[in-house]
Amino acid sequence: MRKVIIKMASFIIMIIICNCGGKAAEDKENRVEISEEINVNFVILADEQPPTNFTDDGGNITGIAVDMCKEIQKRIGNNDQINLVPWKRAYETALIKPNVIIYTMARTPEREEKFYWITKVASRKWFFITNSDFKGRINNLNDAKKLKSIGIIRGDVRQTFLLRSGFTNLEEADNYEQSILKLKGERVDAILYERIGLSSIIAKLGEKYKLESFKIHSSPNSSQSWIAMSKNGTSMKDVQLWQKTSNSIKADGTFQKIVFKWRNYLLQNYNIEVVINENTLQL
Length: 283
What we know:
alpha/beta; seven-stranded mixed β-sheet; five-stranded mixed β-sheet; single chain; 23% strand; disordered N terminus; globular
């Protein structure tokens, strides 16, 4: 009888151990699934838009928005790579895929509901720009409509603005370096861009091009440049984490240091004094 009791006890203990082991394995599996949900991989896309995001002489991706993005990544423990691609590709990717960070994007009524907006990094004032030997002035949109062609970037907010304003004389390019080269080669009469972006690209192109060889005309509009996140399939938990972290960076003075760093960079490299308004560079 005693042997029977001992055998039954041993059998019960074995069942308990097996069940515990199965539960531990199940818990471990659940922990892996939860971890995979938390450690999201982001696709981070930017285009060449100096001085917010651009490639420097050493081939490094840098700029105001890049510094801000890296600071957010550091604080949330994310190490995903920042990729520079043509704007149209970045924009179309962010429209359809989840977990895409895109910058810098102009925040417009048309785009408002298509993306999550993380933080503003700069304001941009647009100008019509021609070669210095251009005869006359472009004082308004009607003057610009009379030109043979205006260089713009495919999918850019400036293209949208001009199309909505009734322009039919637009010449597309993948980036503003291409557009500026078209202007210097007299393949377009003007471009719609910003003075600091122009200065940055001219410096990158070398001694052959001088800022004095361009003429700045009227400003038809401006835009607010943001870091944004794709909406399709992106978790609100991740959106709120990026938003909350960016707010902390601005609240503790870190973003202000980034802004002053780039204001000094523009002054030292291009002799351009940039206004800071509400901790944002007015480009």
